[in-house]
Each structure stands twice: as structure tokens, then as C-alpha cells.
């Protein structure tokens, strides 16, 4: 442990939050540098650069400073959540999985995302999947079943039901539509504007 890190811990300096985490061997707990808990004995402190490293060493997050729920600014959290959904939209994805992936409380994530983006993470995920399905349907190379699976739906029947509800056409009808209906479809699909 560097002297600068120890000084940050001893003075509860929030400027170092996110740069490193410290664990106390005698308690089995790890904290942010700004934690207001009693200052530990220096000999009992171990420093980690990431949350995962501390958890891999079998330390538990402090219930007071909650280092596993790093607080990004609202806009940054929303952007990171969108990036996470964009990268994982074809996988089974729940709010809990997203929150774990971002090391944040799921209720806080839901609240901040809805406030910043205007829709819930689930609604954003659905629109991402539908937008990807529309692109794949336009390519005409894949079956509806294959498209459903590739964009994260459990089965083709559920995909077709959701797609019809969102777009106003079944996946097959969308694929076979005359191109002149695209302007009408963009009106029906107005909810996806915030994806841009």
C-alpha cells in the first residue's frame, strides 16, 4: 500500500473513490477510501484496484459505504446501461443481471435510467431487440425462428406476439410489406426514436 493511499483512507478522502478500494483483514470487509467507518490499523489493510479483485479475495462489501454500488453521475450511468444493453441484448437479460454487470443496486439503476432516458431499461431492451429484428427481417436470409433467437426471445411465438404489438404487423407481414408502407410504419414505431 502506498503512503498516498493510506493517507486517503485515514482522511476518508472521497477524491480517491473509484481509484482503489481497501479491505480490512480482521473484518473481511472492503470499503471505499471515503468510508466513515472507524479507521483500521494499517497492518490489517489490503488495497485492491477493482471491486472484483476484492471480492475474488473473499472480502465482502461494506454495508455502510456500499463500494459494490459505485455511484456514477446519472447521465454516465444511463449511458453505461445503454452500452451494456446494446452489447448483451441477444442474451437472457433482466434488471438484476444488468445491475450486477454494472455493480449497482437494481432499483437505483431503474430509477436513474427512467429519469434520464425516459423509458425503463426493460423498454429500452425491447426496442433494441425489435430494431435488430427489423434489420434482420429486411435482409430476408433468416427464418423468423432464427431471428427470434438471435435477438433474445425465448421462442418465435412470443417474438411474433411482441413484434405485432410494437409494430402493428407480424414479422412475416413486416418482411413482405410494400416499401411504400415504411413511412406509416415509422409513425407506428415512433417509440423507438429515443434509440438514436
UniProtKB/TrEMBL annotation:
Cross-referenced InterPro entries: Ada-like_dom_sf (IPR035451), Ada_DNA_repair_Zn-bd (IPR004026), Homeodomain-like_sf (IPR009057), HTH_AraC (IPR018060), HTH_AraC-typ_CS (IPR018062), Me-P-triester_DNA_alkyl-Trfase (IPR016220), Tscrpt_reg_AraC-type_HTH (IPR020449)
SUPFAM superfamilies for this protein: Ada DNA repair protein, N-terminal domain (N-Ada 10), Homeodomain-like
Domain HTH araC/xylS-type: 79-177
Cofactors: Zn(2+)
Keywords: Activator, DNA damage, DNA repair, DNA-binding, Metal-binding, Methyltransferase, Transcription, Transcription regulation, Transferase, Zinc
UniProt key word Cell membrane: no
Coiled-coil positions: none
Protein name (database record): Bifunctional transcriptional activator/DNA repair enzyme AdaA
Species whose genome carries this gene: Alicyclobacillus fastidiosus
Lineage per the UniProt record: Bacteria, Bacillati, Bacillota, Bacilli, Bacillales
Amino acid at each position: 500500500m502506498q503512503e498516498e493511499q493510506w493517507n486517503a483512507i485515514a482522511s476518508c478522502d472521497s477524491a480517491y473513490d473509484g481509484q482503489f478500494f481497501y479491505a480490512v483483514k480482521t473484518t473481511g470487509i472492503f470499503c471505499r477510501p471515503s468510508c466513515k467507518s472507524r479507521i483500521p490499523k494499517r497492518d490489517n489493510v489490503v488495497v485492491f484496484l477493482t471491486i472484483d479483485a476484492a471480492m475474488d479475495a473473499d472480502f465482502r462489501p461494506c454495508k455502510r459505504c456500499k463500494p459494490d454500488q459505485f455511484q456514477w453521475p446519472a447521465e454516465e450511468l444511463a449511458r453505461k446501461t445503454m452500452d451494456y444493453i446494446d452489447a448483451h441484448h441477444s442474451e437472457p437479460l433482466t434488471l438484476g443481471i444488468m445491475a450486477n454487470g454494472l455493480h449497482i443496486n437494481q432499483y437505483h439503476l431503474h430509477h436513474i435510467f427512467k429519469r434520464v432516458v425516459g423509458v425503463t431499461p426493460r423498454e429500452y431492451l425491447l426496442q433494441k431487440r425489435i430494431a435488430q429484428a427489423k434489420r434482420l427481417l429486411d435482409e430476408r436470409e433468416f427464418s423468423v425462428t432464427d431471428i427470434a433467437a438471435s435477438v433474445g426471445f425465448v421462442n418465435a411465438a412470443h417474438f411474433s406476439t411482441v413484434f405485432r404489438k410494437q409494430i402493428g404487423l407480424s414479422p412475416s407481414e413486416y418482411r413482405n410489406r410494400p416499401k411504400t408502407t415504411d413511412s406509416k410504419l415509422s409513425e407506428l414505431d415512433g417509440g423507438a426514436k429515443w434509440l438514436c
